[in-house]
Design goal:
The protein is an alpha/beta fold and 295 residues long. Helix content is 32%, strand content 16%. It has 10 helices and 9 strands.
Length: 295
């Protein structure tokens, strides 16, 4: 399965389009289910934050999730190669889109934020905005129930140093390593106590190494599902063998298991203290991460 196959697959148009700014890409596509039976999902697309990759390749996934009962919101955001893309515009747009979805759903509880690849970095970052300085315009405490990070660029600093995506991570922050303190999910640990984390990663991923998810799971105790025969794009393809693992990660019935670190058996305060120590020491010491292997 390839990226181009996802682009050519027939899929229904969104039921609504919400505009949240004057730029043509400050929009959110909304896919509504026949009947709401599952939590709302904000789906953040990947593509190394580059303008040549837009939300269109996630449309099959968005439509499939809507068919499963999820209201699905697919934000577009300004990207590298566009006016305002990268730092700070990409982060401005993602924060605004998530907040808009939550404001549109008052009294309906939180949401699940799912993200693939670079979108996984943005999803994890969205759930860490409470860790930003109060003076930062992105600071907030959005009611995010869970983050499902698919083949996520979860360690922006590692991507920066390794030059993943032909140096896209460095371009995202204008080559300024000091901005990683505001944008890198690893540097903003721990996540909010009420937010559960699940990671899914294909072992055969050649674009984002599975080791990145393994290290993030070790730091946080998040559940990690590794799919032995999956590459990078299988995780967003509803026709792939990897798809059941993705839907299980999104399932509200499994939500208590999404992050063992936040289960009642482990006090939240103790987990937060341990995660902070790991972060400050800069060590990827093994935490009690739950790793599931799928074929």
């Amino acid at each position: 399965m390839s990226f181009h196959e996802l682009l050519t697959r027939a899929v229904r148009a969104p039921d609504r389009v919400i505009r949240f700014g004057p730029h043509p890409d400050q929009v959110i596509d909304v896919y509504l289910p026949p009947r709401v039976t599952s939590p709302a999902v904000v789906l953040l697309h990947g593509g190394f934050w580059l303008s040549r990759y837009d939300r269109s390749h996630t449309r099959p996934m968005a439509a499939a999730l809507a068919d499963l009962g999820h209201p699905v919101y697919v934000p577009e955001y300004r990207r590298l190669g566009q006016a305002g893309g990268g730092y700070p515009g990409t982060f401005d747009d993602v924060a605004a889109a998530v907040d808009l979805v939550l404001a549109e759903r008052p009294g309906r509880g939180g949401i699940v934020v799912a993200g693939h690849s670079a979108g996984g970095q943005l999803a994890l970052w969205s759930a860490a905005r409470h860790r930003l300085p109060a003076s930062c315009p992105w600071h907030g405490e959005p009611a995010i129930d869970a983050v499902v990070a698919l083949a996520a660029l979860s360690d922006l600093g590692e991507a920066f140093t390794a030059g993943l995506g032909d140096g896209a991570a460095a371009r995202l922050v204008d080559g300024r390593a000091e901005l990683l303190d505001l944008t890198d999910p690893v540097r903003l640990l721990p996540p909010a106590p009420a937010t559960r984390l699940a990671l899914v990663h294909g072992v055969r991923d050649r674009l984002v190494p599975v080791g990145m998810s393994r290290r993030f799971a070790a730091r946080t105790g998040a559940a990690l599902t590794e799919i032995q025969d999956a590459g990078h794009f299988a995780l967003i393809d509803p026709l792939s063998a990897a798809w059941p693992a993705v839907t299980r990660a999104l399932s509200p019935a499994l939500s208590p298991a999404l992050s063992p670190a936040l289960s009642p058996a482990r006090p939240r305060a103790a987990w937060q203290e341990a995660a902070s120590v790991l972060h400050l020491a800069g060590r990827a010491r093994q935490a009690s991460a739950e790793v599931t292997t799928a074929h």
